[in-house]
Amino acid sequence: MIKWIKRIIFGLLSTVVILILLFVLIKPKSYFIINYAIGSQMQWFGYDKEGNKMIEKSIKKLKNFSASQYHSASVQNTKNGNYNKAIEYLDKASELEPEEVDGYYGWLLLYYYRDYEKALVHLNRYDLFTPDFDDYVGDDHILYAKALCYKELGQYTKALELFDNTIKSELKEHDESWISHQVYFQKARTLHLLGQQKKAIEYYDKTIKLWDKSGESFYYKGLAQIEINDSLVGRKNLNIALDLVTKGYKTSDSYVALFDEVYKMEIEKTINEL
Amino acid sequence: MFTYESPRGFSIRFLFAKLRCLNTQQTIYKHISTIKKTLRNLIYILIITILFSCNRKSGELDLCGLGILKPYYLTGLDYKGGMYAIKEKYKQEYIPVKKGKISGIVKIRFDVNCKGETGNFDFETYNLKYESTTINDSIVNQTVLIARKLNNWIPGTNDDNENINSFKFIAVKVINGELKEILPK
Predict the structure, then answer these.
(1) Nearest Cα to A193, choosing from A165, A227, A239?
(2) What is the largest CA-CA distance in chain A?
């Protein structure tokens, strides 16, 4: 009896081995789907070159790759800094379905690539697909994302106009508490960069009203106060900022540094240099 | 000692005995022991294969445990002083370059082990359209060397708050030989 059990097990194992060999040799469509999935997983563990080779091979064989599939192939490449592959795939996705991809593409170029001009191309095109509707890209209102591009390009007046339009758009259907504190913070930063410290302080205060632990708002508010010779209060706010940031209260992201993000070392240096 | 009793009281030992019309406990243990040895050997072969096929440039950096790496954004890998300190280091040490292909992006990829030590450095260069290209050697050498000098990494951790290995990249955007941006965080 044992002999028969052994034979059955051996037979089953042999069949499995033969099927695997045939699968690898014939390479049906499912082989490349599995290959693609394994490639993505390898990239996740940091084996970029090996993973990308498998993905590329699969894309070549799996014809009619969709926009969303190109999109997903680009994501891990952006996260791992393989900019050539990430952009190649996103360009293909955007070519196939710009109305689906351009919002994400513009937002990505803004935050992950700091490529503001190209980001505006995609954000503007995305916005045009729905002229009567204010879209969201990532977690951002599209007008806010565009405003950030203009701010980083140094076009502060245009940026301020768009920050205001963002606030107006949000207030159409919601109250002020709905607005992200970052919108007020970035408007304050733009005013500050324009040298309008008093107006900037007003908007830093609005940010703090929405989130009283915004370390970055206390920091820049303190700087603005010092710039207009209100040094005592300014210094006090820098110390509040240092305390908040030391406790971990600041706006940040797991993947990228944010615009005007503050760091403990930066605040300490500013305080020491006063 | 294993008994191999099922929840309903059915015994594998009993099954073997019935099948062979024997009550040879030793034979049963012999089979179980062979299976266990085979499984153990298979696991060893699998681990050795994975380590030999996947391990990058072993020797340059002692990776902790089995050498498994996780992405920086999941482990919470950080640098003392954050991106501010990294940018300051680049600002202090980078010397602008005037000749050759002086615009593009240098992506520096490296591993940080559970002790915060770095190694296995690798780099790729792209133009401002994100196509692979070569850029001035001085830009590449400087940016990679500065990355190698960053030695205040705070290792990433797992769910049990134990320090683990992470992989990380820094992308340095250079325009007309001047530092423009350092990404991602």
Answers:
(1) A227
(2) 96
Would residue A204 count as lying in a domain?
A: yes
Residue written as token pair 């109250």: A175
Let me know if residue A207 belongs to a domain.
yes
What is the total count of domains within chain A? Answer: 1
* Interface check A56 vs B, CB under 8 A: no
Put simply, the answer to whether B84 touches A265 (Cβ < 8 Å) is: yes
Burial A205-236 (b: 16+ CB within 10 A, else e): ebbbebbebbbbbbbbbbbbbbeeebeeebbe
All residues of chain B having their beta carbon less than 8 Å from the beta carbon of residue A79 are 71, 73
Residue type (1 letter), B25: Q
Q: Is the pTM of this model over 0.80?
A: yes
Q: How far apart are CA A65 and CA A58, in angstroms?
A: 10
What distance in Å separates residue A97's CA from the closest CA in chain B? 21
SS3 state of residue A141: strand
The CA-based diameter of chain B, rounded to the nearest angstrom, is: 89
Structural domain contains residue A238: yes
Within a domain: A65: no
* CATH number, domain containing residue A188: 1.25.40.10
pLDDT reported for residue A262: 97
Q: Are A187 and A163 in contact (CB under 8 A)?
A: yes
ipTM over 0.90: no
If DSSP codes are grouped into helix, strand and coil, which group holds residue A204?
A: helix
Tell me how far apart the alpha carbons of residues B147 and B182 are, in angstroms, rounded to a whole number. Answer: 11
**Each residue's pLDDT tens digit, B59-106:** 589 999 999 999 999 999 999 999 999 999 999 999 999 999 999 999
**pLDDT for res A47:** 87
Q: Which residues contact A195 (CB under 8 A, 6 or more apart)?
A: none
Q: Which residue range forms the structural domain that includes residue A214?
A: 180-274
**Helix A231-246 crosses helix A215-227 at what angle (to 10 degrees)?**
160
Pick the residue with more confidence: A42 or B145? B145
Could you report the per-residue pLDDT of B10-19, keeping only the tens digit for each?
444 544 444 4
pLDDT above 50 (res A176): yes
Report the C-alpha gap between A101 and A66 in whole angstroms.
Answer: 11
Q: How far is CA B119 from CA A188, A235, B82, in A?
A: 41, 41, 19
Q: Do A1 and B68 touch (CB under 8 A)?
A: no
Residue A238 has pLDDT above 60, yes or no: yes
pLDDT for the residue A43: 87
d(CA B157, CA B77): 7
